[in-house]
Structures are given as C-alpha cells and as structure tokens.
Amino acid sequence: MNFALIDGRGKRFTFPVNPEEVTISRQKGYDTTMILSSGEFDFAQGDRVKEISFASFFPKEYNNSFCQVSQDEFMDPQTAMNKLNDFLAMKMPLRFVISETAVNVLVFVVSHNSTFRGGEPGDVYFDITLRTWRELKAAKLAGGNQGKSSSTVNKKARVDLKEKSKTYVVKPGDSLSKIAKLELGNSSAWNKIYQLNKKVIGSNPNAIKPGQKLVMP
C-alpha cells in the first residue's frame, strides 16, 4: 500500500512513509432557518466537501524497512517539503490515491504543517489536510429558458485538469545532473531530461548550452 498525489501531467509524488492512520471527514450540509415563534429548523442540503487528513514524516536517511519508494525516488526531506508547498499553491486539483483501497479522488492540498524534533536530526514530521474537489454541475433554468440548461445559456469551457509542461532555461555552469537534482530532487534522473530534449541538446548530453529551453519530465 502506498499514498500518492498525482498532478495534471501524471507526475507522481509518493509519500515515503505510510501514516499510521488516515481520517476522512464527511458532513451533511444543513441550512438553518428561524421561524418566528417556532424556533430554528434545519433543512438538509447537499453533502459537504470531504476532508482527508493524515500525518507522517520525511526521513533524512533511506531505510527500505519502512520506505515505500525506491532509493532512486527517495527525496531529501527539504525537497519533499518544498513539493508540498508547490501543491499547496496549485490552483488545479491533484489526484490522491491510496493503493489497494477505493480511495482515488481529486483533491486540493489546503494545509500542511512541519515539525522538527530534537534527537532526530534531519527528519521532518508533517501533517496534511486535503479537500475533495467537485465540479460545479449546471442546473436547469425555469421560465423563458425551459428545456435549456444553464450550461447552454451561459456556456463555459470544461475545466482542463492537465497542466502545461514545465520548462527550464539552461544557465551557465548547468549540467543535466545538476538540473535533475534541482528540479526533480534526484541527480540520477538526468537521462529522463535528456530523452525528452534530444532534438534540442543533440547527441552529446554533456553539451547543453545556456539559453536552451528544456522540457521537464
């Protein structure tokens, strides 16, 4: 079993250590109305957005006895925390998956907190909260627009969950392994960058030049 967030380009971020527990909060929506001389009355509305929260840590050192990722995918804790910060700033939903379960939903990262503990140098503990994303559905309009939905009266483009490819402009002193370390958190991933940019770089992966625009995996 592993826990992962997947962005619109299909880039997968797997949490290295499984949490001990996951909390999924579901609530029913209610509209409360005050009726004079009779008091308050609750009227059921649609379900509220679900929240998913859990806590774990990013270890400084790789240990295959509890790490759910391969050593090639393993990230430095600070790089991993920066990745969560990127997710927090994103305006498009991510897909959250818990393998071997039915959890496979679109979510936003709405909060996360980091903790550094004495006696465990380098390890970063965190807790994170996700909120499920739900597309707004068009409702039918009454009156002069009978038989037409609001989507035909005021039609908007469908939300595109796919992200545009990220690019990197080569700087003086760069190498593919350096770029892979900075952008992907793993210097050994340089070959993935090279395979995507062979036409730009040419036959020699060490011959990148300042100003070249490279597509990131």
Automatic annotation (TrEMBL):
Kindly name one Pfam family recorded for this protein: LysM
InterPro entries attached to this UniProt entry? Bact_Kbp (IPR052196), LysM (IPR018392), LysM_dom_sf (IPR036779)
Q: Which domain of life is it from?
A: Bacteria
Query: What SUPFAM superfamilies does the record point to?
Result: LysM domain (SSF54106)
Which residues are in the LysM domain?
166-216
Under which name does UniProt file this protein? LysM domain-containing protein
According to its UniProt entry, this protein's organism is Paenibacillus cookii
